[in-house]
Amino acid sequence: MTLMLEPFDNTETVIRAAPIGICVTDAEGHFEMVNPAYCDFYGYREEELLGQHFTLVVPEADHALMNDLHRRFVAGDGDMEVSHECEVLGKDGQPMNILAKAARIQDGRGEVKKVTFVVDITERKAMEQRLEYLAHHDELTGLLNRRAGLGLLEEEIQRSRRYGTALSLASCDLDHFKRVNDRHGHAMGDQVLSETARLMKETMRQHDHVIRLGGEEFLILLPGVTQEQASQAVERLRQSLATTPIAEAQIHLTLSAGIAQLQDDEEADALLERADRTLYGAKHKGRNQVQETDESHPASESAS
């Protein structure tokens, strides 16, 4: 079914006055009409659009798909009206997001056209993407947050068991970090945390996972790595952090870490408990050191 459209007399007046972007394209996809709101949104003058193919405002990677959708829609393959969200390009090349609703129409000569109504949802999409990012990442450091990190730990445990590979983790604390906030203020403390997180990611392997659990507490997952290898890797991190001045205040930080390797059918909570217990041991022995879990003690032993 196709809507009938009278010759563009009164219809054109309504389209041009509409506060949202509207365009009419012919069966081949060329612009036959664009209203001022459409031109303003894309940054083109009317004469720059008329006669041009609609893919002028579509990212090149999407040309084939959009052409196929247009062809099938005009041919009557599917609903008479469709709506979808997509990315488009303004004249300046900047990407934008729109909600486009299209309908098949016929003009007074019986020729099939497509009229498309365009609503700018760029800010809404940016907000959605930001919220999605914050659901999995720590806003200050950009690292995975506690919830996402612990979920990833469960995945890595399953992968380790499926392929019979080692998995180790490091429970880490920045030593005496409260002194940074007390001496330099919380703004500097935030900068120090951000730059420390960057140093941690740069120092560890690309496929290791650095997670901010909260405050100055971090967790590092090291897939395919034994406890001894993990200890060596985190020791390199400890040395790098201890010798690298951080932030504008040129602050030197130290790190304490406890290393544990996944055992047999051990659950995530038990693995984390062993790493935390070992971290407490490193702190008790004077901080600024990496300590391995004593594997002779059962995982179920309570923390001292």
Report on this structure.
This protein has 304 residues and is an alpha+beta fold. It is 40% helix and 24% strand. It folds into 2 domains: 10-126, Beta-Lactamase, CATH 3.30.450.20; 137-292, 2-Layer Sandwich (Alpha-Beta Plaits), CATH 3.30.70.270. The chain has 10 helices and 11 strands. β10 (255-261), α10 and β11 form a beta-alpha-beta unit. The model is unreliable at 1-8 and 297-304 (pLDDT under 50).
Oligomer: single chain
Distance between the termini: 76 Å
- Strand percentage, roughly? 15-25%
**What shape does the CA trace take?**
elongated
Q: Could you report the average pLDDT, rounded to the nearest whole number? A: 91
Helix content: 40-55%
For the record, what CATH class of the largest domain applies?
Answer: Alpha Beta
- Rounded to the nearest angstrom, the radius of gyration is 29 Å
Number of self-contained structural domains: 2
Q: Spell out the helices and strands N to C.
A: EHEEHHHEEEHHEHHEEHEHE
Major sheet: 6 strands, mixed
Question: What is the assigned CATH homologous superfamily of the largest domain?
Answer: Reverse transcriptase/Diguanylate cyclase domain
Number of helices: 10
Secondary structure tally: strands: 11
- Uncertain regions: pLDDT < 50 for 5+ in a row? 1-8, 297-304
- Which structural class is indicated by helix and strand composition? alpha+beta
Examine the secondary-structure arrangement and name the CATH architecture of the largest domain: 2-Layer Sandwich
Any idea of the CATH topology of the largest domain? Alpha-Beta Plaits
Summary of the model, kept short:
The chain has 304 residues and is an alpha+beta fold.
